[in-house]
């Protein structure tokens, strides 16, 4: 068994439901080995900024609070890139880790965080274990990331609510959901929320296909329709609908719902359309039982790996089994989009949902 006494844990990237459940699992599992757990504040900022920002987490001060049952990140997170060079940040990160005497750092993050923080750890010679989380479900080599299931639940609830008003006003309502450049959240929610049309970045679509589906619904005598569109969907010609960027120049998705609404209205009079852009509520909601269970399984596995002397890996839940991959494999795999032949897409097509051409 590795001689570990103190570990750090941080959450990185966009928050989601289930992060605090991961922290609970790590704190409780680590305390079985007698390890101290340092909760790092605000992602890597807690280690790269001065003064260092952290707190010691114990079963007594953390597990027995409502936090593990709640969304958000108790520790705080960081979802925007920074302007300083990776080398400078990695050096400060490493100095921070050594100042606290941490033997390893657990990073709860998505594909971007696995990439960036694993690079800091490599440059600064820090041991790391990754734990996947994201509402986008695009972290590679794991079937599920913590937070995705709850986000699907939030989107499905939105579709349930939209259905009633769509019916009252005989409208086609468009729900724009997050997901970055992956259509997992849109497709899983569209299936669960019985949408009529679901557009995802991975599958090309046509206005004609959308209108044909709406017309089919109209002819069948139904007077309302639900459309789900993923924020990463582009125009029919493959152009981004927005050129918006954040403070550090990273592209911001969104706006495709409004774009589609205008396009449909300009070419088809069968239904009035309205758009709901669900936004950041998708990152909240009471964590589902699935996400809590996954959080505990992956958090406990991360501690077990460390205890057995393994590092520089990301734990994963793949094909119904808990497993792990090297961080190099994760980084090399990039981002995992929705497979156009996945069971979800096949089932959607089979029940007559328009999912593109
Ligand atoms: O990656 C999670 C996510 O919620 C994406 O689905 C979305 O595009 C992005 O983060 C939003 O980021 P921000 O919170 O910086 O607006």
Q: Provide the domain count.
A: 2
Name of the CATH class of the largest domain = Alpha Beta
Dominant shape: elongated
CATH topology-level fold name of the largest domain: Rossmann fold
Radius of gyration, in Å, reads 22 Å
How many angstroms separate the termini? 54 Å
- The neighbouring-strand order within the major sheet is 3-2-1-4-5-10-11
Largest beta-sheet characterization = 7 strands, mixed
Average pLDDT: 96
Strand content: 15-25%
- SS elements, strand count: 11
Computed structural class: alpha/beta
Task: Kindly list the characteristics that best describe this protein.
7-stranded mixed sheet, 4-stranded parallel sheet, 12 helices, Rossmann fold, binds 6-O-phosphono-beta-D-fructofuranose, alpha/beta, 2 domains, 357 residues
Outline:
40% of the residues lie in helices and 17% in strands. The protein is of the alpha/beta class and 357 residues long.
Structure in words:
With 357 residues, the protein is an alpha/beta fold. It folds into 2 domains: 6-146 and 287-318, Rossmann fold; 151-283 and 340-350, Phosphofructokinase domain (Rossmann fold). Helices cover 40% and strands 17% of the residues. It has 12 helices and 11 strands. The protein has helices at residues 19-32, 45-48, 59-63, 86-100, 111-124, 148-169, 184-192, 207-219, 256-267, 289-307, 327-333, 343-350, and strands spanning 6-11, 36-40, 54-57, 104-109, 128-132, 171-177, 197-199, 225-230, 272-277, 313-318, 321-326. The strands form 2 sheets. It has a 7-stranded mixed sheet, with helices on both faces. Strands 7-8-6-9 form a 4-stranded parallel sheet, sandwiched between helices. Helix 5 (111-124) links the parallel strand 4 and strand 5 (128-132). Helix 6 packs across helix 7 (184-192) and helix 7 (184-192) crosses helix 12 (343-350). The radius of gyration is 22 Å and the shape is elongated. The mean pLDDT is 96. The chain binds 6-O-phosphono-beta-D-fructofuranose. 6-O-phosphono-beta-D-fructofuranose (F6P) binds next to loops.
